[in-house]
Request: fold
Amino acid sequence: MSLVTLKSGMANVKVINDRKEREKQDLNSLSKEELIERIHQLESHVVQLRNLLKSEPSIKEGNKKSKQFDHKRYARRHVLLQVAYLGWDYSGFVIQEHTEKTVEAELFKALEKTRLVESRETSNYHRCGRTDKGVSSFGQTISIDLRSNLKEGLGVYIPEGHQLNANSKKEENEIAYVSILNRVLPPEIKIIGWSPVSTTFSARFDCKQRTYHYYFPKANLNIEQMKTSAQFLIGEHDFRNFCKMDVGNGVVKFNRRIMDIQIDSMEEKINSYSMFRLKLVGQAFLWHQVRCIVSILFLVGQGKEQPTVVQDLLDVERNPRKPQYGMASEIPLNLFFCSYAEEDCQWIYDAESLRFVMSGFQSLWSENNIKATMLREILTELEKLSNCRIESQIKSLVNGIEPKTYVPLLKRQKCESLEERIEHYAKKKRIEIIDDETNFTS
Reply:
């Protein structure tokens, strides 16, 4: 409101804009119903203005014309990327409808932002493994077609409809894929290295073997008993009692081969807080297979089961139905290596990019190790105050409620057999088909 103040003797006089005064007089002459209607009109106008402001870009953005990137001016190259990630705060590797917090979603955000791919649909993409919620990886791999500076070379091709710039100089250096992607990826997800591969190469189907690591504190575990029990797993077996059956996705064969299994200390001095690592090498794994194996080995290490229980569970003729037991936690699990034939894959690691990744992961290590050290000191003081020590460090690593009285595995309630699951799923599909046909005819 425009105000002019005049000083006349002892009095201050405010002169109000004539238009405002007239509007005030007009409002005074309106009835209550007319005033309410006027308010509704003004509120509606305000809403319209707000929506208009939201839909229109700012002046700065409006004047800034983004240049359309033309992917058809570039060749493509089929490559293999080694992806490391800490999956503790992610809902798994694979993209999901109900959340954007997946490793794969972050990867494609980075790939599209850096214009290395036009879209996932046109990228000839394969992943080696589907790690679950909370699971990490040092050696996850993906095969994918990326934009290339080159016109020839292993994995390089020119898609149909692409027209390269004939006047451009012949490029001798490939795009720095690792460095470019790591600058835009989150701190918990980084590319370690890359390899050019043939255009028909698949990260999933050409993988020769996969290595998982599982980390755990010694606590009160008998490591030697666990090692003895673990050796029964080596070789080809039916692992239906060591996994979650995925009949709904067509998995009805549960034979897998484990090449090696090792349990080693990661520290020189051994006590209940010392960290151990279980290393498991196989060609392929079933859903939750590693976590089920670790859970059984924990029971052996605690003295609740004999080492031969692994043999009993592998004998599916005598024990065709899996006993109910909780899986080991997903947090300590890491898909550590995905191995390929040397003639198919030659990894390229850049020292500068590795230093960048190391620096970032060191920051994460510092934050987490400080927390662990603080907790360790608190526990030491609590032990002094209570004048006792307890060894329940793995309690949080096994899902489910611990019963007061332990029931041996082979005496527990059993899950459905494979045949029962198949029949149950087939019946469910028949009902769905009948429902669909009924809805269609109606």
